[in-house]
Amino acid sequence: MPTERAAEIRRGDCVNLSQLSYLVETVRCGSFSAAASHLYVTPQTISKSLGDLESELGVTLFGRNGRRLTITDDARLLAEKAESVLACVSDMEGLASRLRVGSTDTPRSVSIAVASSPLRGTLVPDDLLSRFFANNLGIEVAIRRNGSESCLTAAQQGLVDAAITLGRTTREGLLWTQICPFVFGVTMSSGHPLAGRERVGIAEVAKFPVATPMDFRCAYRIIEHQFEANHVEPTYVDVAPTVEAHRAFLDDGGVLFTGRTPDLSGLYPDALTKRLMRDDGISIPLCLIYRKDNDNPAIPLLQRELLLTTALRKNM
């Protein structure tokens, strides 16, 4: 008779990377259908695979509230671990790619898609790339700025060598390295009832109209989870994608989730950006993403400089 420990090991061997990717994306997106659209599979594929995962782990991951999928706390905990496993695999594959390229190739150029938002402030700080520019003057660098999802798609389709995006990815054929956290702030007019606070709570924010975070679609579920954790439901408002419409929305007492960056004062001169309470903080990792089959030797240099820049900023 096999021992209980042997049975556990054999059961653990059944878990595969696809199941971990499906779990991470479903927890992030909040539904099988949304996760499926990001991963280019069917909702039925994800549902069956995660059903098998529940049986293999002996843990309840999801439930139903009417037609709505509910995510258990156990699923969220396991998804965090799954992200760490996927990150290790991605780093290992990236290392293998660099070893294949070798150290004799001289990089000549690199194209980078950088996540940007014209309405919510700088997503990727300018100084994050400055070290790479300064230390690699012989490399011709082409930068294109667009929404985070567009940058991710550009990297996947090979339109650029790499992308710096909000959030990790589980799309097939892509590798990612987490660089640093992007921390959300809450922007409001200087006359807003919360303007006098140094920090604001998510439950307080929910009392006011919240602009639908269309520029932050990849972070929508993260923001929504924080509201759910505080047992509040915000009133989302679809605001036209113009600076004028967003200024008017703020003047009418609405709030925006934004980056905490200096350029917001140019967009919204009469606005303030407040930090969330520590327990209510919302962040999403900035990640460097590139294709597995992209052997441009500039990519490991870029990866190294981004990580070094982040480490130096922490120690300042």
TrEMBL record:
CDD domains: PBP2_LTTR_substrate. The keyword Cell wall biogenesis/degradation does not apply. InterPro entries: LysR_HTH_N, LysR_subst-bd, WH-like_DNA-bd_sf, WH_DNA-bd_sf. Pfam families: HTH_1 (PF00126), LysR_substrate (PF03466). Residues 15-72 form the HTH lysR-type domain. The keyword Chloroplast does not apply. GO terms for cellular component: protein-DNA complex. GO terms for molecular function: DNA binding; DNA-binding transcription factor activity. Keywords: DNA-binding, Transcription, Transcription regulation. Belongs to the LysR transcriptional regulatory family. This is Transcriptional regulator, LysR family. It comes from Collinsella stercoris DSM 13279. The lineage of its organism: Bacteria, Bacillati, Actinomycetota, Coriobacteriia, Coriobacteriales.
